[in-house]
Amino acid sequence: MTTPFHRGRRLRWTPELRALVRETPPLLVEDLIMPYFVVETEDRSFRKEVASMPGQYQLSPGELEKQVEKAVDTGLTAVLLFGIPAKKDEKASGAYAEDGIVQQAVRRLKERWPRLIVITDVCLCEYMSHGHCGVLMPDGAVLNDPTLPLLAKTAVSHAAAGADMVAPSDMMDGRVAAIRAALDEGGLKELPIMSYAVKYAGAYYGPFRDAAESAPASGDRKSYQMDPGNAREALIEARADLDEGADALIVKPAGPYSDIIRLVREHVDVPLCAYQVSGEYSMIRAAGLNGWIDERAVMLESLQGLKRAGADMLITYFAEEILRQRLAR
């Protein structure tokens, strides 16, 4: 006699059965990209915990190397670097200086670990005295086209230092094309661009701005980052960056925009990266430290959800923790 209802539990009865029929594969070491904040300082042992991001640090180049060494020993294969210069100005000159802080860090890491994938964030906000991602008019307007050469110079300088990939995050129109042309002209045709193609002007970036010291001195970034209510615009931005020469795309933030990850995944064939941003990290970490949630379980579930949505790669501040726990088991 046929049972009158679905027996879904048959395939959940044992861990082995659940693993056999699992639709989304578990997290892989190769999925994870760990962000780091490196500081230009004369203090070689500088290490400062970010108050709003417990467990994350601003690091001198020497301390960065020590931190990365521990992570590489547990299996880390890719890093994303953000630089904090000693001085800022209205031309973001530290962003593209040959001896800039990111350039120093790239050389150091690649010399130590030639096979480590070193990705650099290409933006100007950390280097501009006003904290915006582009050249600023006296009235506070961010100028698009005059910003493009500065971004291109920054990307080329990172590549010349040894970066394996550049990731422009500024959201200026045409910046991928400008960077691609500059890289090609500089004999760097093989260097890939992973663009922050879909980046929302959301409320989840506060802890990052503490860590990178990049909060705007006035105004906000809504004139160049996307409105959180828009979905169709995500496809326009993704296609524009692909047309300009991007090799991979990033959606940022991740968790609140898993529908956007799925939407983009269904319309593009290139590798897709989800950036689980600082606010997402800090909420999970704070709840875990207070004993309100099982932090490890929530951390893994949140990232599994991003893979299920369609992400191939994950930028997450939990990368080190995941690798440590994996090694300990």
Structure, described:
By secondary structure, the chain is α/β, with parallel strands linked by helices. It has a single domain, classed as Aldolase class I (TIM Barrel), CATH 3.20.20.70. Helix content is about 40%, strand content about 15%. It has helices at about 15-20, 60-75, 95, 100-110, 150-160, 175-185, 205-210, 230-245, 260-265, 280-290, 295-310, 320-329, and strands at about 30-40, 45-50, 55-60, 80-85, 115-120, 135, 140-145, 165-170, 195-200, 250, 270-275, 315. Strands 1, 2, 3, 4, 5, 8, 9, 10, 11 and 12 form a 10-stranded mixed beta sheet that branches. The longest helix is centred in the C-terminal third of the chain and has 15 residues, at about 295-310. It starts with 14 loop residues before the first helix and ends with a helix. The model has no long low-confidence stretch (mean pLDDT about 95). Its EC number is 4.2.1.24. Belongs to the ALAD family.
